[in-house]
Inverse folding.
């Protein structure tokens, strides 16, 4: 026989539930419904917070696989050569039906690497046995310890370029009208091209950066942005795409165009996992040693997981411009060795597109979770931490677009602002930069003069003016207010999409 719960306890439970519910709140920009789905509130121009769910390995649609070991290397005096030979031999083997060649397993022990380990073919996984597999970058040469890269570049398919004809394409849009959709179909890879223009730079006041030694004013030809997208549907002259627009397009700033492209030489299905990487060094400020633990470029649908990096001058993982749909997860970057100044200690650096950094940690860095000039989104930093920081987290310079910093926790600063003449003329760091449920000591979030907004929602920390107090304020909401729902925008968007 079930015991009856006393009425007094029921009242206490009800009160606790009511108190908890009263603390929970939704952003005015996006509401989580009772069924977990999300509803977005457009602004006066139709812009919404974009969908960040299609980032990382296969846009989050596939789990990172466990690939069978086909070659094994053990520590020895010739281990570096044996590792590279194993990779090179595997590169010549045919791909299996899933696009993999196999894994090279490095058994526990220490491996001295005098040059670098190169992966230049698809379908190869470099795997250790956890912290017990230690790779040490020896010598005095600046380089990545593990260098993963294909070849080539984006090549426009001739005769496919067509203009976007809408008067305004808002942030968050996944469709738009073009002059002619003839020849386009679902599955086509396209570039969504947004040209740089003199008027845009003038209205951003990036032709008026206060000059100091080496300052460069922005030039239109340097801001022709290329967003990689996939066509999902065509209706008449209306094109639908997989990932949203993250920077509004309007005719007064050159509008937009699309074209098909090829990328011969780009590789895929490469993973680096379960390794401890270190760099040799001669002093705490020495810089004549390895720069990155892992560098990716000209690759899509790959991953780095369970990798730690110590004593490097730059990054644990550096995703370069043409690294796309890469997941970096459960990685750590510790105890950099370098002078503490510009161009050093960018613990997790992203310059590519549709990439995900999740569950990572960093100490003693400068820009621990950072994007660089003209980084095209969407991109996500999720559930990451930084301690003993020497500079700020956020978009670093020269106009990144479409980045979500979701549950990033730091004892330092997160800033989204006009950096003015820092460096050689950093200027506005970007647009559609979103802080969601982050924690930091100090935060500045400003919006550019024109062409979009930046957001700070649910911050735990102190709001500060930024370098220039007269810049437009960003969209702030719920500062130091507990209970933001959803607790993670990225996780909620991914869950919603998978349920749809």
């Amino acid at each position: 026989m079930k015991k009856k719960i006393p009425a007094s306890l029921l009242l206490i439970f009800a009160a606790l539930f009511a108190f908890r519910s009263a603390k929970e709140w939704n952003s005015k920009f996006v509401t989580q419904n009772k069924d977990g789905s999300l509803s977005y509130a457009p602004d006066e121009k139709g812009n919404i917070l974009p969908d960040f769910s299609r980032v990382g390995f296969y846009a989050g649609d596939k789990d990172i696989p466990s690939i069978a070991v086909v070659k094994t290397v053990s520590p020895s005096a010739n281990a570096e050569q044996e590792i590279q030979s194993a990779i090179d031999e595997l590169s010549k083997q045919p791909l299996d039906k899933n696009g993999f060649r196999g894994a090279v397993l490095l058994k526990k022990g220490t491996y001295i690497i005098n040059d670098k380990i190169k992966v230049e073919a698809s379908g190869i996984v470099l795997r250790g046995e956890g912290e017990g597999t230690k790779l040490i970058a020896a010598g005095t040469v600046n380089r990545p310890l593990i260098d993963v890269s294909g070849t080539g570049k984006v090549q426009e398919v001739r005769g496919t370029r067509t203009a976007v004809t809408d008067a305004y394409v808002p942030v968050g849009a996944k469709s738009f009208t073009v002059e002619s959709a003839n020849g386009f179909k679902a599955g086509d890879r396209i570039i969504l091209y947004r040209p740089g223009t003199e008027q845009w730079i003038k209205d951003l006041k990036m032709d008026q950066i206060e000059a100091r030694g080496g300052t460069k004013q922005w030039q239109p030809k340097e801001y022709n942005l290329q967003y990689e997208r996939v066509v999902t549907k065509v209706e008449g002259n209306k094109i639908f795409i997989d990932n949203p627009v993250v920077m509004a397009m309007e005719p007064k700033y050159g509008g937009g165009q699309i074209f098909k492209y090829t990328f011969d030489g780009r590789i895929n299905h490469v993973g680096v996992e379960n390794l401890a990487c270190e760099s040799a060094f001669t002093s705490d400020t020495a810089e004549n040693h390895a720069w990155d633990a892992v560098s990716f470029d000209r690759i899509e649908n790959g991953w780095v997981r369970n990798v730690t990096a110590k004593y490097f001058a730059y990054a644990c993982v550096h995703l370069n411009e043409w690294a796309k749909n890469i997941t970096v997860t459960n990685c750590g970057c510790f105890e950099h060795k370098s002078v503490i100044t510009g161009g050093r200690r960018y613990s997790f650096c992203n310059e590519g597109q549709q990439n995900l950094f999740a569950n990572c940690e960093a100490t003693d860095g400068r820009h621990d979770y950072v994007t660089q000039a003209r980084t095209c989104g969407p991109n996500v930093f999720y559930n990451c931490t930084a301690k003993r920081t020497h500079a700020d987290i956020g978009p670093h310079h020269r106009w990144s677009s479409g980045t979500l910093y979701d549950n990033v926790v730091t004892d330092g600063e997160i800033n989204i602002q006009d950096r003015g003449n820092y460096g050689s003329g950093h200027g506005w760091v970007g647009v559609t930069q979103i802080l969601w449920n982050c924690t930091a000591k100090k935060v500045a979030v400003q919006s550019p003069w024109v062409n979009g907004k930046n957001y700070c929602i649910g911050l735990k920390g102190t709001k500060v003016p930024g370098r220039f107090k007269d810049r437009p304020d960003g969209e702030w909401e719920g500062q130091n207010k507990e209970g933001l729902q959803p607790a993670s925008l990225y996780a909620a968007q991914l869950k919603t999409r998978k349920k749809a």
User: Anything to note?
Assistant: The domain at 155-262 is CATH 2.40.30 (Elongation Factor Tu (Ef-tu); domain 3). The longest strand covers residues 299-310. Helices lie at 7-23, 79-91, 198-204, 489-499. The mean pLDDT is 95.
